[in-house]
Write a structure and sequence with these properties.
11% strand; single chain; 15 helices; mainly alpha; 3-stranded antiparallel β-sheet
């Protein structure tokens, strides 16, 4: 395919100033990609000849402006020619960067990653949760350690990032650090997000993630069956803190709320629905999706039980929720007291709700609405769990059957 290259000057009407003047922009198109940049000059619309891409008139001001656009055009042509001579990748962005004097070697990967994390830190509680920020900090640590061990340097130029860099980092996470496939993929997705940030800011032209594919390993979703949940609810627990942790866990089993959502659940999130029953209507912290949950009677009783709890009232929430880590430690004790062989975790409660409701015939679409899933594909995993249970149950049934034989007719 023949290389294409063009330079066009135009008025950016969408950026018209309060005095009515409009900025002159230049659009650089090369090989199907385009990039635009202001030349830092302004004129009124009636002075512009759009077909010629020049200023109308022959007065001194018009001549100076046209002469300046000619200079800009000449510099862009020189930038294009230089990239060709250097054997560099030709695109609208690469030519613009060359014209602007942006050195591709000036930005490095860890530098950009730290910039990303700083922006994320500034948006904590607004756009991001502390848990998300913490995961990106961990990702940065792994990436820094990889670069140090692989290249014996503290950072690498963005321009050096190629497909091989990504595959080497993937191998390091899985083979050297022994990190599981799904967790490794999360770290790679974090890196991909930072790479996209660099591309959006014109610090990097080619994406090293092109043609790189990740495939998660199906994970086993652990959940409680009805008998186990009943035992947890009915087992007497004398220790107040353990009892509170048990109640919060059970409430999550009956509502599908995640840790971050139960931790911020307030009376404002609970109201009476069209059926006359109490409902939770709450936007999920993780995705922003709205969860709409009709509360079963026992869940309502738990809310009533803690309505005067001093710790919860002080924080303006419905339950006295401690840290996720401490909850999981206490839940281990709860499981032991209740004779539950499975390892109880806060997140297991959400899986229990999804599986339990699906088992009882609640439509997948309804479960997705209650759990605040953005995609039905996320909810579909609970249908797969049920299919596996049916298969296991029928296998047990088959094993218990006598060995029937078809009689010859």
């Amino acid at each position: 395919m023949k290389d294409t290259f063009s330079v066009l000057f135009f008025l950016k009407v969408s950026k018209t100033k309060s005095d009515g003047t409009v900025p002159i922009y230049v659009r650089i198109t090369a090989n199907g990609s385009r990039s635009e940049v202001s030349i830092k000059r302004y004129i009124s619309k009636d002075r512009w000849n759009s077909s010629k891409g020049r200023v109308k008139g022959t007065n001194q001001d018009s001549q100076l402006l046209n002469k300046y656009t000619d200079i800009v055009r000449s510099k862009i042509l020189d930038a294009h020619q230089t990239l060709i001579q250097e054997g560099k990748y030709i695109s609208g962005k690469s030519i613009k960067n060359k014209y602007l004097g942006i050195d591709e070697f000036s930005k490095k990967l860890i530098e950009v990653y730290e910039y990303h994390n700083l922006k994320m830190e500034q948006l904590l509680g607004i756009e991001y949760q502390p848990s998300t920020y913490s995961k990106f900090k961990t990702s940065l640590m792994h990436l820094s350690n990889f670069i140090q061990s692989k290249y014996n340097v503290d950072d690498v130029p963005l321009i050096d990032l190629q497909h091989k860099f990504i595959t080497s980092y993937e191998h390091y996470l899985k083979a050297t650090k022994g990190i599981g496939i799904n967790t490794s993929n999360k770290y790679l997705l974090h890196l991909k997000k930072v790479i996209n940030l660099a591309i959006d800011n014109d610090w990097l032209i080619r994406n090293p993630f092109n043609r790189f594919k990740m495939k998660n390993k199906p994970s086993e979703r652990v959940f409680l069956i009805e008998e186990e949940l009943t035992r947890i609810i009915e087992t007497p627990i004398l220790n107040q803190r353990l009892s509170e942790v048990r109640d919060v866990f059970v409430f999550c089993c009956l509502t599908g709320l995640s840790y971050s959502d139960i931790r911020s659940l307030s009376s404002n999130d609970v109201s009476r629905g069209i059926d006359g029953k109490m409902w939770i209507r709450k936007h999920r912290k993780k995705t922003g999706s709205l969860s709409r949950i009709s509360l079963v009677p026992y869940a309502v009783e738990l809310i009533e039980k803690y309505k005067d709890h001093p710790e919860a009232n002080t924080k303006g929430i419905l339950f006295p929720v401690i840290s996720n880590q401490r909850m999981n430690i206490y839940l281990k004790e709860v499981g032991s007291l209740c004779g539950i062989g499975k390892k109880l975790t806060v997140h297991m409660a959400r899986h229990t709700f999804g599986t339990y409701t699906a088992t009882l015939g609640v439509p997948i679409e309804t479960i997705g609405q209650m759990m605040g899933h953005k995609s039905i594909n996320t909810t579909q995993i609970y249908a797969k769990i049920i299919d596996k249970k049916i298969a296991d149950d029928m296998s047990n049934f088959t094993n218990k059957l006598p060995e029937f034989k078809v009689k010859a007719s």
